Amino acid sequence: MEWVLAEALLSQSRDPRVLLGALCRGEASAERVETLCFLLQRLEDEEARGGGGRGAGALPEAAREVAAGYLVPLLRGLRGRPAGGSDPGPPARHRRRVLRAAGAALRSCARLAGGSQLAAALAEEALRDLLAGGPAPGAEAAVEVLAAVGPCLRPREDGPLLERVAQAALALALAADGDGGEAGPAEDAAALAAGRLLPALGQCGGAALRAVWDGLGAAGAPPGPGRVGPQLLVLSALAERLLPEPGADRDPRTREEGPDARRCWRFWRTVQAGLAQAQDALTRKRARYLLQRAVEVSAELGARCACGPQEGNGPSLFWWSEKKKDELLKFWENYILIMETLEGNQIHVIKPVLPKLNSLFEYAVSEENGSFLLKCIQKMSSRHWCAIPILFLSKALANVPRCKALGIEALLALRDVLQCTMITHQILLRGAAQCYLLQTAMNLVDVEKVSLSDISTFLMCLRQEESLGRGTSLWTELCDWLRVNENCFRRASDCSCVGLPETSSLNAYVKNLVQEYMKSPALETGENCFMPDWFEAKLVAMMVLLAVDVEGMKSQYSEKRRTQNVLRIFLDPLLESLMKLGTNAYMPLLKTDRCLQLLVKLLHTCMLKGSSTQDDEVFTLLQNFVMSTAESISEFILRRLTMNELSSNTHLSTFESLMSKCENTKKVSDLDRCHLYLMVLTELINLHLKVGWKRGNPIWRVISPLKNASIRHLQEMDHGQEPTLGTQVQRVISMAALATVCEATDRTPELQLGSLEAGPTERFLSALPLNHTLQKPHAEEESSLCEESSSSQGWGKIVAQYIHDQWVCLSFLLKKYHTLIPTSEGEILEPILPAVQMPVRTLQAALEALTVLPSDQVLPVFHCMKILVPKLLTSSESLCVESFDMAWKIISALSNTQLVFWSNLKAFVQFVFDTKVLTTAAKIKGQAYFKIKEIMYKIIEMSAIKTGVFNTLISYCCKSWIVSASNVSQVSLSTAKNYSELVLEACIFGTVFRRDQRLIQDVQTYIENLGHDCAANTVIENTKREDHYVRICAVKFLCLLDGSNMSHKLFVEDLAIKLLDKDELVSKSRTRYYVNSQQHRVKNRIWQALLVIFPRFDQNFLNRIIDKIFRAGFINNQASIKYFIEWIIILILHKFPQFLPKFWDCFSYGEENLKTSICTFLSVLSHLDIIAQNIPEKKPILKQAFIIVLQWCFSHNFSIRLYALVALKKIWSMCKTWHVEEFDALTSVIESSLSQVENMPGAGNAKKNWQRIQEHFFFETFHPLKDYCLETIFYILPRLSGLVEDEWIAIGKFTRFTDIPLDSGFQWYLSPTQLCERKPGDWAQQDIGSNSGEADDQSEWTDVQKKIIPWKNNVPDLDLELVFQDRVAKLGKSISRLIVVASLIDKPTNLGGLCRTCEVFGASALTVGSLQCTRDKQFQCLSVSAEQWLPLVEVRPPQLIDFLQQKKAEGYTVIGVEQTARSVDLTQYSFPERSLLLLGNEREGIPANLIQQLDVCVEIPQRGIIRSLNVHVSGALLIWEYTRQQLLKHGDTES
User: pLDDT digits over 969-1022, tens only?
Assistant: First the structure.
């Protein structure tokens, strides 16, 4: 329009100077300056075409006058005028608009004036202003002038000026803030310099371009993360000059004159910094653009190109070879695609392209080998990772083909990566990552570059309790690797062993390691002798056992005795020292500590993981060696714990002289030593229990003296004297020893005398002052306490441990004398055992202990409460409720911890939900009953956040209610009936996780499915904390119930009523719900539970609930729920035919109530042969069914007719089998009708749907009786009915869950039919909106999306009955052959806008998912009645595949609007006349299975940062482009 106006003005005046003068007068508004610009451009255009007839001679002079008299003063005024700050309000926008128009007008003036004098003068003046460093508005105006006149300067004559302008522009552009923050005036000027001025100067080439390139090269070191943005801004602005456009017809000589950025290391360092370190998306996008341009240029030019590092002989930063063109193009294409996709930062977007990482990684390794791997590993260690990325990165490294690529530097880097794995709370994923990193080291480390010392230090970074456990596949793999390479390791310079040959063999290294470990410390004093660190003992123990197992591999087929000899040689120094412990009182204290530490670590490490140790030769040998030293060790421990020798090296012969020794020799560090001794004592007890406990063994002889000495110490120190540090430490040690004795006695029945008569020990323990805190020592000793090493504990922890040990002892006492605990306080006047016989006081002390002890020390208090609460619940209910409350607060506070939470939760559940507690609380129905219910729901609520909490509760309760399967019928469930809500919640339990939570669950399942191939599965106990195990536990519990047992029967009936009520409540809460939503899943689980307990129903109970079951059939349910309802109705009618009249009544409702549910009851009728099995007289049943089915065969609804025909076919076959004569007259009609349906002509949708419904699993394969099993209920049917995989419970999980066993006669686990082999069927009238449970095979996809995850969606088809309306033809409208498919779009606003756009541009039809959308007010507001003039067709999402195939057959090209790896640019695509445009969903785009139906994908070119357009906008752009191309074609044809 502007050109038309300019032409009109010029046609009215012969002298353009008059017009120019008129425009230069008056206020300099944006409109006036823009009009002047258009006029000058029109004159310039005429001049260029040689049409300068209008005052041609005066035009240059006029242009100079306009420039000097109007534009230059105007720009000067704008340079001095403030811009209003950074606020982009109207003044600022107006000023920028005037600036832009004045600059463009100035460029036209310079060209019209002829010569470069005017341009040079203007440039000089603007450059002076720019270099003067004035305010930002002045710089912005100067840049506009320079950008306008710069292209008018001459490269040769004005070279120096161009060079200075280029330098100034570069300096201004690089001065911008590169952090991606909010832009201000200075940033606007810098962006203007980079975006307009530099590209304009680049067109001049020569001096300007060299000045910019030299300026970039002189910018110093590669920029940091905050400064890389400006440099990439400049580089991307000049990319066309620095990286010539591929395919451009350029003179090679000209190309050589300019710089080639591909050969400059600084260019690539800047691009690398932008890709890896830039904080804002725009900078990263510029870096990717430069990389892509460089690759395209390299491929076009074909010449070899290489850019090495700045210095040294490192790997090339970039290289190109024509011989490897295809491989390199594929590599960089994948790399850029992955980097683009990662910008989405959403797992469903990223997941489809992750497989491309494999080829990317493998090619990089093959080309760069070790250097690439080293840098990759070092980069991994430079940041902290969450569990999933570190796991899969480690797995990728472990899968790199074996090669000698890494040395000691990489091994250290791998060790750093191992440290990164320790921060994640997902223990299984953490362990699996460690396994993969060890495999990486074994596959890639060059053993000649590392020593065995380096390897052992690396192995110490692994947690044996999570990954490297002895007996695992990983341990065996490591042993084999050591065996193969044991003589190839580099010999460590500091590894020398006297008497050993010069060899780096594993045995020599380990022998030397043990000898060095056992050497006595050079300096040791009794006053400051702290416990040595456990690191060395752990390292030595691991290497000894590895060497022994390696030797066992060698002698596997030769000498078995060799293993024993090798182990003996390794352990001789240790065994020799252990044998002297009992007699040599002068052995250095540190040496004894190290010996005992190594002994403990050997025993812990030697235990085989995941298998029995009985057949383990090494463990048996080690056990025998330790047993031979047991007497010496036990005597040493007894002496150290009872004779005040913990910090003393002086041997005294009598106990009395030792007791007279100064107690101040005790140190806080002695507590660590005490715990070591008690740990060794516990290990010795375990060993004796394994080999068989014998009376009089060394441990037997130690227990009693240790117990007596500990009690004596505690009694003698209670004399009221001022406590010293030594006395307090001795008190703590004695209590710890006493607690260990109590625990050992509790685990070892042989240590108990068998009599319940209270002895001195029991009297002393019962009289202990509970929660007695230790007074701090004297003030002068506190300083020494604070100066203890970091290995010692603070005084608060010491006191907590002391109180903890008190409660351990009391727990033992209460357990032993639980029969003596009275139910109230006042029954015993003079108690012999106060703590036992005064339970109220003891429980009050327990509550006090919970407030004093830290959360990780309360376990023995919970154990005591478990014994006390059942006794006191009736008489002291309020106190018991208080204990429930206090304990729950502690559990809630521990919920964020990992190590102590589960053991405490288990103890909490055991005392709150103890069977006696539940029984008593339900009997009195007081505060305790309702508090237990409240805690129960709080635990269920916590389970939604912390997976596995509900598992602990339901497992314990079910095991308590059902003791064993053998005596199930004798067990009463009267108590459980009062808590049936617990089983109800368990039956329907399962949360819908957020995407990130589900990802963690999926990855954990993936690791578990690896089985023993991943050592973490063997080492880490499977805690069965998945949500599925809650339902599995409840189901197995229900399977054990006996319908003949009255308490069981009442429990089942109560549960069934609650389940049906829950189903009604869920149905009322939301009448419409989505497939796989929480409502769908809950209802599905309800009917699964009802199917499980159905065999326990009798006729009387069914009379009470049958109406509820039939009512459920009338509700509009999802497919899986309908199948379960139909199944249970079939089973009821089969078992109790008395309910058939009620079933026939279901067909008598008005058709309006039946239109969505009649298919359910017709499906039941299709299994009439099963229903009629127990009916002697079958003809009346057949007659009634026949009448009903015939009625529905004439329904106007096509789907109902199909279901009725299926039932009719089944009933008619039964009539012929049983020779029902009453229907002989109808034989010809019915058979001809069925034959017509079977043999209908053509291949339309009606015939296909008839075939599909007959082939559907529910009608063809499913047998309601034979398929009645757990596998069908919980796995097969959910899979076939389209439920998401989260709801499939594999039968293997039932068998693995052994907490509740099943009877040996329980046979209904697996389905005996072929149903398990079926795949989800195509018929889905009841499955609208459901997704298939079968995942599409990703390997078959030829295209991947950049934005979305390929959803699992196997969509079926319905009878479309598509008849395009001819309304538009009657209106005389011009219509196209374009069909727009919007069936995937959900939002009414988008559909309304599309409807309007399609009508405006004459699309032939718009398909939508449901025609109900046209009634939506938002739709109508946007469509403005377009739906009345545009053919709308309903094609539901499940019907799309067949619809698209049908349109293809009619000659349509199916075009998808989607960004994929192979999309065609919209500007380059030519639309066929018959085009079908498929639009994706607002969030997920086009599903992957539909992408495979497309003939082509078209994407809209983008320049901005936002990655996608609104679907309505995208559709409108493509509809217009189609219309534009068709208009051009028809215009060409007509002309």
Answer: 454 577 788 898 999 999 999 876 655 666 777 777 778 778 788 888 887 766
Question: Which element (helix H / strand E) includes 307?
Answer: strand 305-307
Identity of the residue numbered 237: A
Cα of 754 vs its chain's centroid, Å: 55
- Are the C-beta atoms of 963 and 1300 separated by less than 8 Å? no
**Interatomic CA distance for residues 557 and 1340, integer angstroms:** 48
**CA 1412 from chain center: how many Å?**
38
Tell me the chain's radius of gyration from C-alpha atoms.
43
What's the whole-number average pLDDT of the chain? 77
Whole-angstrom distance, CA of residue 119 vs CA of residue 201 = 13
- Angle in degrees, CA 86, 87, 90, rounded to 5: 130
Q: Give yes or no for residue 1350 having a pLDDT over 60.
A: no
Can you tell me the distance from the alpha carbon of 1393 to that of 1361, in angstroms, rounded to the nearest whole number? 26
Helix, strand and coil percent figures for the chain, each rounded to 5: 65, 5, 35
Lowest pLDDT segment from 837-851, 991-1005, 1189-1203, 1508-1522: 991-1005
- Contacts by 1164-1168, CB closer than 8 A, 24 or more apart: 1164/1126, 1164/1129, 1164/1130, 1164/1133, 1165/1189, 1165/1207, 1165/1210, 1165/1211, 1166/1203, 1166/1206, 1166/1207, 1166/1210, 1166/1259, 1167/1130, 1167/1210, 1167/1264, 1168/1207, 1168/1210, 1168/1211, 1168/1214
Burial 921-945 (b: 16+ CB within 10 A, else e): bbeeebebbebbeebbeebbebbee
How far apart (Å, rounded) are the C-alpha atoms in residues 27 and 1097?
95
**Residue 1382 host element (H or E):** strand 1378-1382
Which residue type, as a one-letter code, is found at position 745? T
What pLDDT score was predicted for residue 1320?
A: 74
DSSP secondary structure of 1126-1141: HHHHHHHHHH-GGGHH
3-state helix/strand/coil string of 318-387: EEECHHHHHHHHHHHHHHHHHHHHHCCCCHHHHHHHCCHHHHHHHHHHHHHCHHHHHHHHHHHCCCCCCH
Cα 920 from Cα 979, distance rounded (Å) = 13
Measured distance CA(1407)–CA(1384) in Å, rounded: 10
Helix (H) or strand (E) holding 1379: strand 1378-1382
Q: Residue 1500, Cβ neighbours under 10 Å: how many?
A: 17
Pairing of strands 1475-1478, 1453-1457: parallel
Residue 1455 bridge partners (DSSP): 1477, 1496
- CA 1323 to CA 1411: how far, in whole Å? 22
Q: In what order do the strands lie in the sheet with 1496-1499?
A: 1432-1434, 1405-1408, 1378-1382, 1475-1478, 1453-1457, 1496-1499, 1464-1465
d(CA 1120, CA 1277): 7
Bridge partners (DSSP) of residue 1499 are 1465
Cβ partners under 8 Å of residue 595, min gap 6: 518, 574, 577, 578, 581
Lowest mean pLDDT among 115-129, 207-221, 798-812: 207-221
Query: Which regions of 211-283 does DSSP assign to beta strands (E)?
Result: none
The continuous run of DSSP H or E covering 104 comes out as helix 90-113
Q: What is the pLDDT of residues 638-647, one digit of tens each?
A: 888 876 554 4
Strand 1378-1382 vs strand 305-307: parallel, antiparallel, or unpaired? unpaired
Residue 915 tokens, joined: 């069977």
Q: Which residues pair with 1379 in a beta bridge?
A: 1405, 1476
What are 478-481's contacts with CB under 8 Å, separation 24+?
478/438, 478/442, 478/546, 479/546, 479/549, 479/550, 479/553, 480/553, 481/442
Helices then strands, counting H and E runs in the chain, come out as 74, 9
